[in-house]
Design brief:
single chain, alpha+beta, disordered N terminus
């Protein structure tokens, strides 16, 4: 049995070396979501109350029905989630590359998962 372990470790090392940087970051985000007890975004269904975590990929100001809306794309390694704060032009700390935990009720709009006005916690900068 001990002969199997080194080949297993060797196989994982080869997999890591042959993986792209994006694949490695996605795997790290998936592990972080699991460790923090959050739901994976890919497992979220319409109208479900969830707690998710990930990294903000993009942050944009996009008006919705004439109301300012700050939109961000949260990615946890499994799927993207649009996070929208209605009536906000900016929020201190909400910027691309920042990790956060968000909770609220998921909705699906135009085939994409959306979380409107979530409760959120910014992850400490040292944990990124």
């Amino acid at each position: 049995m001990s002969a199997d372990k080194p080949s297993g470790r060797f196989r994982r090392m080869l997999d890591r070396l042959s993986s792209s940087q994006e694949d490695l970051e996605s795997e790290e985000l998936r592990e972080d979501a699991h460790a923090s007890g959050c739901t994976r975004i890919s497992e979220c269904n319409d109208r479900q109350i969830v707690r998710v975590t990930g990294t903000l990929r993009t942050v944009t100001l996009r008006p919705r029905a004439g109301v300012p809306a700050l939109e961000a794309e949260l990615f946890d390694g499994t799927a993207p989630l649009d996070v929208v704060w209605l009536g906000r032009r900016s929020i201190v700390g909400i910027e691309p590359g920042r990790k956060l935990i968000a909770s609220g009720r998921i909705s699906v709009s135009h085939g994409r998962r959306v979380l409107f006005n979530p409760k959120y916690e910014l992850r400490p900068l040292g944990q990124e």
